[in-house]
Structure formats: C-alpha cells, structure tokens
C-alpha cells in the first residue's frame, strides 16, 4: 500500500500530465471563516439576482456533505490565458475565458480521465469531480491548498502565473498529504479597486456582484440598470478589467489547450457584425461556448445597452 505522501505525489504527477497548471491538497473540513463571510455577503445582497447562492449553505462550507466520507480536497488550476487576443478596436469585448469551448466540458473530461488513471494505479476510491459546477467555495479551497491567494479582486492569484486560470476540484475519501496554505502578496496595491469602472470592489476581496459588469452581462436576466450606463467599456460578455490591471498577470503565459482557441467569427467580427447578429448565427458561433449561457436575447440586450 502506498502511504499518503506517495498518493499525493502520484496525484500531482497525473495533474501535470493532464495539463493542469497547479495542484494542491487540503483536508476536507468545515470552512468556519467562510461561513461568517458568506452569511454577511448574502445579508448585504451582494449576490444580486443570483438566488442560487442562497441555496445549499451547509454544502458550500463542508465538502463532506457533497462526498460522503471524504477526507481530502484536491484543488487544481487550468490556464486559459490566450496567445492571441481578440481585437478590441471598433469591437465589443468578451472575457478571455469565453474565447473557446465551454471550460466545464473541457476540464470535466480531463478530470474524469485523470481519476480513471488514478483508480487503475491506486485502486477504487470514492470521489466526485467539480469545476464551477456545484456549491463549492473554490477559491477558499485553492488558497487552503497553496495554489494561490485570494486577491483584492476576489480572484485566486499566483506569484508566477497570475490569475487567468480555471479552478477545479476532486473531493475524495483518500487520506492525502496536505499542502500549506498560500500567503497573500497583494501588499498595498489597489490597481484592481481603482480600475473597476462600476466600483464593484467594495472592500479587499469583497465584490458587490450586483455592481459587477460580468454579473450584468451574464447573470442578470432582467434589463441592465441605468447605473451601468457609460461604465461598461464595451464589454458584451464578462469583464477582465480587474485581472488585466493586476501586476501579477505580467507573468501569465499562453495556454496550450487548442479547444480554448477563439473561433474565426470572434477574430473577424466587429461592432457592425455584432449589431446584426441573428439567432441562427449566435447558435453557430457559440454552440460549444460559455457565451451560450447568456442566450441570444441576453447578448442582444447587452449589445443594445452598449450602443
């Protein structure tokens, strides 16, 4: 039988093989500090119309309620920083994470293949895989496992790779060697806070979601409030401003995932073409994209608000 350190080493080796940027491990336990934070966040209404954040409060804080008998949370990151940026001149903007195929599909496929190989070498074990797909405090687990620290823009940041990466988890019943939590390296920098055009960063690490451009263009189902007028900076889906200005992202390197490359339409379309977008073309362009979440009506609403 392998000991916990050998299991951990094997898992990290497999993570690297499957293209994950970083892999850290923490004990599956109750997130006591996050309980107070989440309660206050919801009480202040910072989640806006994201009512789902009010659901499964206990599950969000305790992974043992998601996977019975779980002992470890394996946190992973997957780079999505693009080599080729989409032209912004005379164009509406789209978040870098949505350039290519839906990350939920891409990363879950990788996680399932990785777990399958681990079970061949370790033997059977109980687990579930996640990537932004369940009530999990992903950034808290990433910080606990040493992948990075939660920055003032509430994104997980690493010193040598920045913050343009997806987070994923394998919650399992294996006894594994734990990693040390990450330390904070934001210092006195306030570039993300200063750059946010809607003042959505109300305090270090706290985002008023109802004031965030990403929320307005993706999560919000009703009309965009007039308070966003003249502040959207041509973002039609998502927003990268608080990451683009972060000094640590000068270390971001291009991803190596072909499925995250932008399709031809994103490279050639400009404002004129986006304004003339039809339902059929939307379905063709964004069939496998995260942008399909906002639906054709939502994207047209966003574009109309920007005109």
UniProtKB/TrEMBL annotation:
Binds 2 [4Fe-4S] clusters per monomer. Pathway: tRNA modification; tRNA-queuosine biosynthesis. SUPFAM superfamilies: alpha-helical ferredoxin. [4Fe-4S] cluster 2 binds at residues 196, 212, 239, 242. Residues 174-206 form the 4Fe-4S ferredoxin-type domain. GO terms for biological process: tRNA queuosine(34) biosynthetic process. Its EC number is 1.17.99.6. TRNA binds at residue 221. It catalyses: epoxyqueuosine(34) in tRNA + AH2 = queuosine(34) in tRNA + A + H2O. It is found in: Cytoplasm. One of its GO terms (cellular component) is cytoplasm. Keywords: 4Fe-4S, Cobalamin, Cobalt, Cytoplasm, Iron, Iron-sulfur, Metal-binding, Oxidoreductase, Queuosine biosynthesis, tRNA processing. The keyword Iron-sulfur applies. It comes from the Bacteria. Its main location: cytoplasm. Cob(II)alamin binds at residues 60, 132, 153, 156, 167, 214, 239-240. The keyword DNA-binding does not apply. HAMAP family: QueG. This is Epoxyqueuosine reductase. It comes from Chryseobacterium lacus.
């Amino acid at each position: 039988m392998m000991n916990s350190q050998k299991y951990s080493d094997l898992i990290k080796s497999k993570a690297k093989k499957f293209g994950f940027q970083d892999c850290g491990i923490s004990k599956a336990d109750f997130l006591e500090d996050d309980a107070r934070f989440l309660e206050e966040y919801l009480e202040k209404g910072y989640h806006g119309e994201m009512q789902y954040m009010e659901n499964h409060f206990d599950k969000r804080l305790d992974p043992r309620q998601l996977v019975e008998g779980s002992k470890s949370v394996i946190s992973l990151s997957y780079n999505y920083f693009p080599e080729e940026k989409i032209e912004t001149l005379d164009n509406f903007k789209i978040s870098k994470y949505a350039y290519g195929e839906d990350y939920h599909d891409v990363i879950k496929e990788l996680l399932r293949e990785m777990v399958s190989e681990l079970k061949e070498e370790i033997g059977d074990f109980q687990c579930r895989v996640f990537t932004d797909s369940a009530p999990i405090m992903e950034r808290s687990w990433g910080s606990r496992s040493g992948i990075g620290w939660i920055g003032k823009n509430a994104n997980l940041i690493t010193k040598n790779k920045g913050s343009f990466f997806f987070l994923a988890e394998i919650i399992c019943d294996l006894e594994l060697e734990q990693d040390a939590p990450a330390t904070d390296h934001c210092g006195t920098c306030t570039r993300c806070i200063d750059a946010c055009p809607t003042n959505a960063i109300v305090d270090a690490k706290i985002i008023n979601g109802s004031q965030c451009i990403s929320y307005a263009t993706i999560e919000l189902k009703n009309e965009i409030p007039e308070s966003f007028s003249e502040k959207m900076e041509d973002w039609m889906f998502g927003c990268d401003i608080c990451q683009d200005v972060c000094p640590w992202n000068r270390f971001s390197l291009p991803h190596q995932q072909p499925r995250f490359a932008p399709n031809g339409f994103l490279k050639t379309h400009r404002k004129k073409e986006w304004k003339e977008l039809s339902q059929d073309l939307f379905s063709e362009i964004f069939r496998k994209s995260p942008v399909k979440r906002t639906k054709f009506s939502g994207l047209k609403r966003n574009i109309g608000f920007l005109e």
